[in-house]
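S.,

As promised, the AHG run. Input:
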Amino acid sequence: MSGGITLARHIMTKSATALPVADLALIMERIELIATRITRELALAGLDGLGYTGETNVQGEKVKKLDQWGNKVFLDAFEHGYPVCSLISEEMDEPHHYSSNCRDNSYCILYDPIDGSSNTDVNGSLGTIFAVKKRAPRHGSGIDDILVPGTKQVIAGYILYGPAAQLVYSAGAGVDIFTLDRILGEFILWKENVKMPPHGSTYAVNQGNAGKWHDGARKFVAHITSRKDKRTSYSLRYCGAFAADFHRCLLEGGIFMYPAEVAEGGKPKGKLRLMYELAPLSMLAEQAGGRGSTGKERILELAATAIHERHPIYIGSAEEVALAESFNVEG
Ligand code: AHG
Ligand code: MN
Ligand code: MN
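Predicted complex:
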């Protein structure tokens, strides 16, 4: 633990970030509140917070009670969340606006409140993923100023709810990791300016879908598991929560992939969502020296045309992402 540097103190002493320090501090204060509330709830969810609501969300997925509750935690926190005036959530069909927070400089937060929902009822790893984009001055009720490439994100991050609750974020000046001290109720700096190893020894993918991928994706996985030498002897590590699998790549190198599924009945664009899963984690990957790709294009250059748009993803160490692209993994 580096001398107990709190998130708030670290923000105040940060080198040049993509937004004014005062705005960063106000936004991260809300994120810290949300992270602490969700951490506490997850620790007790086994008592009465699990199961399904019985509804289906805009993604066509059955909604878990924790998905809906997590979304409400964001809505409640940002009701008094100046300078954030707009919220785009995996769990809401449309953006939510707080016009009272709309002043000359305002922001939109794009988030996945509970990532890895298939793990909620089995005490598995879960995450919260978020990105922040600046809103255009005097923006109207439209969102054209938000449907811009991920290069316009000013903050990206996630909270990983594992044995430890960790907050990982970047505001354009490197990636820093904080660990929640549950007694203090503060996130304390754990690692600063984290750099992703140029390659690793693990890959993360739902191998059960292999029969639905482009042939190149199957060939890439066959290559890195052909055990001809050290660099073709990867181990599979996949837990069902993107943030958790990405965290392993951030610290130890390796690649996470969710390919498109070209077979009948498959997910033609893969499963993960650009605005609040792929773009934030691709910003973190690049800030740490890694990459985020669709298998063909740089994720951060994609401008969504719809807020729940999906894309295939190959993200992690620069060498593994480049190797995947060389196999024409997306045809
Ligand atoms: P969410 O729970 O927010 O819908 O996200 C789940 C995502 C991602 O976190 C994970 O890597 C992937 O779905 C797992 O999908 P499969 O169950 O199809 O492998
Ligand atoms: Mn998710
Ligand atoms: Mn989710």
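The chain has two domains: 7-191, 202-326. Residues 7-191 form a domain with the Fructose-1,6-Bisphosphatase; Chain A, domain 1 fold (CATH 3.30.540.10).

- D.
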